[in-house]
C-alpha cells in the first residue's frame, strides 16, 4: 500500500501500489476533466505528481505527446496514464477540475416553509473595471483611478471605499499584466480582493453548521443564489469525547490544547471547502464569504476563546454577539485573507448560533401564536415563543439522536437505516443510498423506539421485555428477534445475512437507556419552559423538530415516544437541518444577520440547572408516555 | 571587546569585556532606576542577563541578598553589581525603567505660528471598568458585561463597540486575575487592547517623519498632550543610495528587495520606539497610535507597495489616500497588534504626506493672500497658495541641504557647525553641543555659501576664486584659507588643530557644485510654480522655509544665495522640521486628519519634467543671484 496526498486539500488516502492515478482521484472524490474517457488522447486530466524519488522519464507515449516541455519539467502527468508506485503528492490545478453545468443543479434557497418571502441581498459584490491608463495629463494614483471607476459603475459617488494595504501591493502588476482590466470584489465598501480580467460570474459563499458530532457544509453560488454543493463530516473533536463537557475538560488542561482544537476544526473546514469546491468544480479562491453557525462551545473553540467558564456555574460565555471578521484572523483558514467570516450570535453558554439559525429558518419573528422549536443534536435546544416573547433552554441530551453511543448507531450516510416500521408480523426499513444496511441513524432510532413501544416490546419505563412477555398477536418472527444478551435483552433489527457488514444489527437494552436519557432531558426542558411561560402543552399551535438526523424525523414517532407535546401531528413540522438552511439565509442576507443579532439579545434564557424542581421533572420525563 | 544586545530594542553595542552592566545601559541610552546610586543596596536596578554560557553562581553578596530565589532562576542581576565578561543579552523589565516626572517636560503641542487655535482631540480613549461578577441571575457574557459598563461610562448608549476576536481570548483570565477591574483602550468604537487594573494615566502616541535621509520620531503623552521624547536617526535605506531613484532601482531588482526595504524601515522605527520609550521611561506597549508622514516613496517602501511606477513617466503612485490600519499589518512592527497606524495622504509621486504635514503645521487653509512654502529635504517640495487655491511641485534637489554629498557635511547632531558668518577678517561659527567641530550641517552650508558669495570668494556662477582674485579689503587670514586642490580650489573652514577629528574642515569646489545643483532645482521649481499661478516673486506675502537642517535655516542666507524669492526677510519664516510638528497635530486631532485628506485632493500638482521650458529655467537658476 502507498500513501497519497492530494492538494488542494490535503486529502490523504492509502491505495495499493500500482493504482491508476485517475482511480485514486475518483476514490478521493476529486472530479477531474476526462473528455476522452481516460484514453490518453484529450490531455485534459493533467495533474502534478511529486514523489520523494520522482523519476521524470517514466512518462508514457501519450504523456510525452500531450504535455509540453515546461509541464514535464514541473512534474505534470496525465492522471489516466500514470500508475502510482510510491508515496506521492498530487496537485490538481484548477483547470483540470470539472465544472458542472450549474443550471442542472436544482433550485435552492427555498425555505422549508410556505409564505416565506426571503429576498437574497448579498453584501459581496463584484465590479468589472476597465481603467484608463495613466498619462502625464492624468497622474491619478492607481487606487484613485479604481475608485473613480467604481463610483461610476456603482452609482455611489464618493463612497469611502477602503482597501487593505496588503491588497494594494498587487495592483500595479495586475493592471499592467491585464491591460488595465480587473474585477474588484467588495464586501460593502471594503475591498476583499482584486482579480485579473472579468470574473463576475464566479462569486461563491460557504455556510457551515458546526455541530458537536457533525459538521455540515453548503457551497452557494452568490450570482444565481443557488446551492452548488453540500457535504457533511464528523467533527474532528469527537476524539476528545462525544459531549462538549469532555472536550472542555481537554481544552482546559493546557493552553496549547485550545489552539490545537481550533486548528483541528479549521483543518476540517478547509478540507470541506476543498471537497465542496471540487464537487462544484469551482476555484475556492472565489469564495468570499463564510458563515459559521454552531453551539456556543463550538463557536468558542473555533475562535480559540476560553471555554472554561462555559462548563462552570454560572456558565458565562466570552461573547454572545455575532463576529464579522476577516478570514486571515482564523489561523490557517484556507479562504483568501480578506474574505469575510461571519459567526452567528449566541444567546448563552448553551444556546448558540445554531439555534438562532433555526429561528431564522422558521421566520420566528413573523409567527403569531405559540410556537415550539426543538433542535435535537448532542444537546437538545428548546425554544418557545408566544406573541413575540421568546424563551429558550438547553437540555443535555447526549448524542443518541445523532446515532452516537448507540451500539449500531451511525451518522445519516449511505447504509444507514433512516426509517423503520415494525408491525406484529415484520420489520420494514429504508436504507440511505438503497444499499444493504450498515447501522441506524437518529431518525431510524426514534422510529424503532416508537414501533417497539407500540408493540409493547419496550415498556414505558424503557425495559425491553423477554420473549414470553410479548403481548398476544405478535408473530413468531418478531418474538424470535428478542434475544437474551449478557447485559439485558436486545432486539434483532437486521440479520447478519441481510446486513452490509455481515454482522447482525441489534437494538440493545443499553441503547434504549441512552435514548431514554436523551428523551428525558428534552422532555424535562420542554416542561420547564412551558411552566415558565405559563403555557399548557395542548396550547402549542405549532412545533418544529430540527436536528441533524440526516433525514427528517418522523413526527408521529416523535409523538409516540413522548418526546414532544401531544398536539395534532399535522401541526408538527420536521424540518431536518434547519440550522444549515438558516446559515444559508444568513449568508445571503444582511437583513437576516441583523435579525439574528436582535433575536440573540431578546431571547429569555432559562438555566435548567438553576430550576428548583429540575430533578423531579427529569425523573418523571424518563417515561415513554405521550406529553400532555 | 564583547557584544551586548539590550531588549526591548534590540539595541546592540560593543564594549570592553568586564564593563559594569550599569555603564553599558547608560551608553545605550537606557535609563534605569538606581535609587541607591549604584551601591547595590536599593535593588531597583534589576535586569535579566542571558549569555550563551550563563553561570548562575556568579552573583555577588548584594545580588544574593536583594534577588529572590525565583528572580535568580530567571537570570536576574543587579545592573550596578554585574560586570559583563562575555557576549550577553540583557532584558530590561519595564519596572526597572526610570519614569521621568512628566510635569518637568516643557509644554509642547505649540505651533510655530501665532493665531493657531489648535485643539487636541485624540481618538484614542481609555476607560477604567469595574465589572460586576457574573451569577446565575446575571449570565451576560464577558463582552456584554464590558459593553454595558462602557455604555454607562461613556454616556454613549448602544454604541456598536467592536472587539477583535484575538483580544477576546485574553478577557476571561484578565477579569479573573484582576478582581474584574480592567482598563479598556479604544480607537473610536473599536477595542485596541484590554489591560489589567487602572492604567488610564498611561496613554501614548508616536509620530514619525520619515525623510529620505533622516527619520525623526516624537513620543507624545496623550493624556496631557505633551511631547515626552524626541529622537532622530539616519534612514537605514541610505545604503542603497542617497536619492530615492537609486533606492527604487534597488527595490525593482528583485521582489524580495521590497520586503527587505520595508523590514529595514520597520526595524528602525522599532528601535526608535524603544529608545523614545526608554528616554521617557514609559512602557512601549502603552503606545496606541502611530502617525507616519514621509514622501510618497518612503510611504510606498513602508507599506511594501511597488515603487516602480514612481520612477517611470507618467509617475503614478499606487495610492494617495491616507491609510488607517492596525499595527499588525506592518510586519514585525513593535506596537501592540491593534494599535492604530495612520499614514498621511500623498498628493502625487513626488509630493508626499510630509508636505501635507507641513501644510497642516502652517495652517495653510486659514491663510489669506499669497503664501510660499519650500521644504528642503533630499527633494525640494514647493507649495504656493493663493486665495484657497494651491499648487505644488517637487524639485530633485539631492541631499546637499541635509549635509550629505558634501565633503565635510554631516547631519545636524553634536559636533556639526550649524551657523557660520565670515567677515573680511575672520570666520565665526557655532557648533551643536558646544564641542569642537566635526563637520557642517545643512544650515551651516547655506550660511557658508552666503558669506563666501558676499565676500566674492565665490562668484555668482559658483566658481571658488584663486587667492589672487580676492577683492580688496579681505584679510590675509581669510585669503590664506583658499587652497589650491587637485580638483579645484577649496576653502578652509576649520583648521586641523581646532577640529574634533584632527582633520581640517574644507568647503570644496565640488561641494559648491552640489549646493548649486540643489539650489538650481529648487529655484527653477519656484519660478515655474509662480509662472503657472501667474504670480510675480515680489507679490508673495509670506514664505515658509521648512526642512530637516537640524537647526533652522538662516533666512537672510537663504535670500542671499537666491534660493527663495527676494521679499522682506521679516516675512520669511524658517520653521525647521514642520513635517514633524504637523505629524504631531495629525496624531492629536481627527479634524487635522480630515483636513489632510481634503488638502491632498485639492492640491494642483505640477509635473516639472512635463514643463516645456524646464531646461532653460533650470540653467538660469543655477546662478547665485537674488530671485526677483
Ligand atoms: S482523460 Fe483524456 S488524456 Fe487523460
Ligand atoms: S542601583 Fe541600587 S542596587 Fe543597583
TrEMBL record, chains A, B:
What are the 2Fe-2S ferredoxin-type domain coordinates in residue numbering? 1-96
| InterPro entries cross-referenced by the UniProt entry | 2Fe-2S_ferredoxin-like_sf (IPR036010), 2Fe-2S_ferredoxin-type (IPR001041), Beta-grasp_dom_sf (IPR012675), Corrinoid_activation_enz (IPR052911), Raco-like_middle (IPR041414), Raco-like_middle_sf (IPR042259), RACo_C (IPR027980), RACo_linker (IPR040506)
UniProt-listed Pfam families? Fer2, RACo_C_ter, RACo_linker, Raco_middle
Q: MF terms per GO, please? A: iron-sulfur cluster binding
Q: Which CDD domains match?
A: fer2 (cd00207)
Organism domain of life: Bacteria
What is the protein name stated in its UniProt record? Ferredoxin
Organism, scientific name: Mesotoga infera
Amino acid at each position: 500500500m502507498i500513501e497519497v496526498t492530494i492538494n488542494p486539500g490535503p486529502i490523504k488516502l492509502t491505495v495499493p501500489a500500482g493504482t491508476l492515478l485517475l482511480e485514486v482521484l475518483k476514490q478521493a472524490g476529486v472530479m477531474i476533466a476526462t473528455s476522452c474517457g481516460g484514453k490518453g488522447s484529450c490531455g485534459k486530466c493533467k495533474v502534478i505528481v511529486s514523489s520523494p524519488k520522482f523519476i521524470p522519464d517514466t512518462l508514457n507515449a501519450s504523456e510525452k505527446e500531450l504535455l509540453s516541455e515546461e509541464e514535464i519539467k514541473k512534474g505534470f502527468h496525465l492522471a489516466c496514464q500514470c500508475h502510482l508506485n510510491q508515496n506521492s503528492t498530487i496537485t490538481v490545478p484548477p483547470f483540470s477540475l470539472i465544472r458542472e453545468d450549474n443550471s442542472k443543479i436544482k433550485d435552492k434557497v427555498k425555505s422549508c416553509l410556505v409564505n416565506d418571502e426571503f429576498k437574497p441581498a448579498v453584501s459581496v459584490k463584484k465590479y468589472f473595471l476597465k481603467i484608463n491608463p495613466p498619462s502625464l495629463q492624468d497622474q491619478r494614483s492607481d487606487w484613485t483611478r479604481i475608485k473613480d471607476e467604481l463610483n461610476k459603475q456603482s452609482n455611489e459617488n464618493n463612497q469611502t471605499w477602503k482597501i487593505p494595504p496588503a491588497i494594494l501591493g498587487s495592483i500595479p502588476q495586475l493592471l499592467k499584466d491585464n491591460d488595465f482590466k480587473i474585477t474588484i470584489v467588495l464586501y460593502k465598501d471594503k475591498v476583499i480582493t482584486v482579480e485579473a480580467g472579468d470574473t463576475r460570474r464566479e462569486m461563491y459563499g460557504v455556510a457551515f453548521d458546526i455541530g458537536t458530532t457533525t459538521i455540515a457544509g453548503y457551497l452557494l453560488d452568490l450570482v444565481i443564489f443557488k446551492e452548488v454543493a453540500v457535504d457533511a463530516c464528523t467533527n474532528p473533536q469527537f476524539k476528545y469525547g462525544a459531549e462538549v463537557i469532555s472536550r472542555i475538560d481537554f481544552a482546559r488542561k493546557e493552553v496549547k490544547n485550545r489552539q490545537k482544537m481550533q486548528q483541528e476544526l479549521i483543518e476540517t473546514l478547509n478540507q470541506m471547502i476543498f471537497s465542496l469546491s471540487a464537487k462544484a468544480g469551482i476555484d475556492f479562491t472565489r469564495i468570499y464569504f463564510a458563515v459559521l453557525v454552531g453551539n456556543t462551545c463550538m463557536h468558542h473553540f473555533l475562535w480559540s476563546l476560553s471555554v472554561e467558564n462555559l462548563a462552570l456555574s454560572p456558565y458565562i460565555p466570552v461573547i454572545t454577539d455575532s463576529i464579522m471578521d476577516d478570514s486571515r484572523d482564523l489561523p490557517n483558514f484556507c479562504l483568501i485573507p480578506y474574505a469575510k467570516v461571519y459567526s452567528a450570535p449566541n444567546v448563552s453558554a448553551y444556546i448558540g448560533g445554531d439555534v438562532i439559525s433555526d429561528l431564522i429558518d422558521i421566520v420566528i419573528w413573523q409567527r403569531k401564536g405559540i410556537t415550539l422549536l426543538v433542535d435535537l443534536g448532542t444537546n437538545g435546544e428548546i425554544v418557545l415563543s408566544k406573541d413575540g416573547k421568546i424563551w429558550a433552554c438547553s437540555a443535555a441530551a447526549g448524542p443518541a439522536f445523532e446515532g452516537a453511543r448507540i451500539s449500531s448507531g451511525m451518522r445519516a450516510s449511505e447504509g444507514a437505516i433512516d426509517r423503520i416500521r415494525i408491525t406484529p408480523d415484520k420489520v420494514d426499513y429504508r436504507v440511505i443510498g438503497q444499499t444493504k444496511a450498515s447501522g441506524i441513524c437518529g431518525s431510524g432510532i426514534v422510529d424503532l423506539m416508537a414501533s417497539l413501544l407500540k408493540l409493547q416490546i419496550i415498556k414505558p419505563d424503557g425495559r425491553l421485555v423477554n420473549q414470553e412477555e410479548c403481548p398476544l398477536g405478535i408473530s413468531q418472527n418478531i418474538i424470535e428477534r428478542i434475544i437474551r444478551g449478557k447485559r439485558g435483552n436486545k432486539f434483532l433489527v437486521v440479520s447478519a445475512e441481510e446486513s452490509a457488514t455481515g454482522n447482525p444489527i441489534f437494538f440493545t437494552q443499553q441503547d434504549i437507556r441512552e435514548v431514554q436519557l436523551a428523551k428525558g432531558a428534552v422532555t424535562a426542558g420542554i416542561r420547564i419552559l412551558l411552566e415558565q411561560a405559563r403555557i399548557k402543552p395542548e396550547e402549542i399551535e405549532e412545533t418544529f423538530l430540527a436536528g441533524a438526523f440526516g433525514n427528517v424525523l418522523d413526527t408521529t414517532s416523535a409523538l409516540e415516544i413522548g418526546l414532544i407535546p401531544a398536539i395534532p401531528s399535522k401541526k408538527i413540522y420536521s424540518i431536518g437541518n434547519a440550522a444549515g438552511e438558516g446559515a444559508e439565509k444568513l449568508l445571503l442576507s444582511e437583513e437576516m444577520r441583523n435579525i439574528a443579532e436582535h433575536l440573540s439579545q431578546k431571547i429569555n434564557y432559562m438555566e435548567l440547572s438553576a430550576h428548583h424542581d429540575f430533578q423531579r421533572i427529569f425523573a418523571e420525563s424518563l417515561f415513554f408516555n405521550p406529553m400532555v
